[in-house]
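Milestone M4 deliverable, item 7.
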Amino acid sequence: MSPMSDTPLLLDSGTTRTLERARTADHVVLTGPAGCGKTTLLRTFEQAILVDDGHTLGADEADRLLREAVAGSRLVIAHRLWPDNRALARLISALPGSAVRVWLQPLSRDHVKSFAARVLDVEVSDEVAERLHERTGGTPGFVLDELSPDPRAAFARHFDGLSVAAGDLLLARSLGAPFDPGLLATVLALDLPTVSASIEALRSAGLLKVDGTPLPAAADTITALAPVEQRVSLLRTLALTQAGRSQPVSGYARVLLELGVVDPELLGVFSAAGHEVVNDDPALAARLFTAAGTGSSVHVARALALSGDLDGAVDAVDLGHADADALLIAATALTLRGQVGRGGELLQRSDSGLALGFAVTGLLGAGRLGEARTVQLGTRSQPARSLTDTLGHRLADVVLHTVTGPPMAAVAAAVATAGVNQAGARTSVQPDSPSALAGLICVHAGELTVAKSLLVKAVQADDGRGMHAVRHELLLACTELFGGDVEAARRLVHPAASGEPREALFAAALELGISRRAGDLRAVRSAWEPAQQALVVHPVDLYTLIPLTEIAVAAARIGQFHRIKTHLDEAWSLLDGLGNPPLWSVLPRWHAFHAALLIGDHTAAEEHLATLETAADALPFARALAAAARCWSLAGRGDVDHTRVEAAAQELHAHGMRVDAARLAGHAAMHTTDRKTMTQLLDIARQFHGPNGAQGGAGAEVLSDREQEVATLVRDGLTYREVGDALFISAKTVEHHVTRIRNKLGAKNRRELERALEDIDLTIAR
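Output delivered:
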């Protein structure tokens, strides 16, 4: 008896109406694929001759049934659409009286959900119903199998009536064979009529969809039940046949690899499969290339590098006989580990324009300007033979112009270069990406909007994959952080994904910068040690001055500046050796200026300010930073010029540094004794802080660290004495702080102060 005989069927309204008419008809024909409930419905008809599996009727049996019908018997016949049984067709067409055909179809997703709930006697989730429908196609009998304690054993019964050819064809399709009758005939050693008949048999049994796709439940079951030797033989034949036709083979090669198949005839298959998957699954590609006997080739090295295994990539390269691609892979590993100069040295041995372009980049990053010039001259003397050669020539020109040429011209060239070969950037193994370099150059030049645009495109193109995906996200986080969007920066920083020293340094510095700007000194102290360790691991170079000086400001805030001073001295020495190029110097000097003020080293602060002022004529960003730093320094001595401060803040804001603009105005307001000037500067701070400034979000910017601590406790309802006890200061001192806070926020009394404190964000740090 069918396992569905005791299970109520769920039919759509149209089928139900047809079935009602069939109850009173002289004869009934139930038609549908296997498992749709024909047998179950057949047994609901009484006082009739019941004929199951009518598609198997012979001519004599069909004639006998016709005689019974002519004599007055009622026939109820259930059959599949295939095979096309002429005896059955003749019988149905000759039936006397009325005959109603009931077409049975698979269940809808909603019906599968209701059907499963009835079988299990529990509510079934939409997710479970979706999976059941996907695996079974909605065929009720198959749904019952999936719901049984041993689904594969239950489903296996549907293979019992299949021919050997149909079973082999289903297994071949389940292992990934294309739905190509000619190919299937070749692989299975069958003739085309047998293949066609097997396909129809599988469709009729509900095991193969109309488009030739095997039902997931059927594919899983037949693959699990087939002997390993049969699967290996079939996969091997499929792989070799498809390779001979220059068709994809990675699906077969992957399974053969998992089964441990070693066969000299398959080496070409494994190699071809490695090339197919290297961009999307480089770790698998490395295994395939190794199985193909190319374990020491550049192919496996590139695959390992793309998968993040730089140690394995370097081990796979024979540097004594390395070609341009192998040298790029080794130089990439060195660069990501902070050895930009060594990477540049290695690439000088290459004859590739791209490799030589990165040689210039690496040497310049290490401060070796003379060597970089020499390599660039050699690069330019060679004609570009490819798009990558052109990219290499441009990179060499761009990075040198950032040091020796007009800064803004270098910025424009860098942005133009970022668009070259962008389509292949995600799958390239090279020390840096043109987009990352251009984005970094734009950040240093104060072109945050341009940098963000470039890096957003790069992140979208990466789609979370590729050698430089993490780098692009971290640089984008830098633009968000300097632009004042701390939360956007926080979302982009994933320290766990930044295993190599270069990216680990950026990630650690960003964690510090985010915590510092959020006013969370406890988080700053917690993030300090990882950042300091990342700094120790990564030598100072031109392209990591931003994280270095960001760490320096945080170190100054928490009394750890002495631990990074040597690194800063190396940075200034590197920049001195390059002639203190404005583009690379000004943003680090701006950070260092604030670090010097935090530790009270006014001499160093003046030196950094002087460098900014020297660069002011060459770079608009330098002019903005120099003006802001001069206003900051003068305000600290009580010299506040409202007009000059506003102009400097305007310049900072124009370069996208809205928080720095607000901080400058707030700093000046905090140090002026003129009430009108203070009010004007507070308005400027609120204006520049961003779209939330109208709600008072910029108010915290004008408060000192101690005033923010006092304000937080006052807002929480503590009395002056309780605030004093918490901060180990006297109630009188608390009162003094509250007076200054009230003046800065424009509150006339305690009630207005409390309302103002509710409106401002006291997590914003200066």
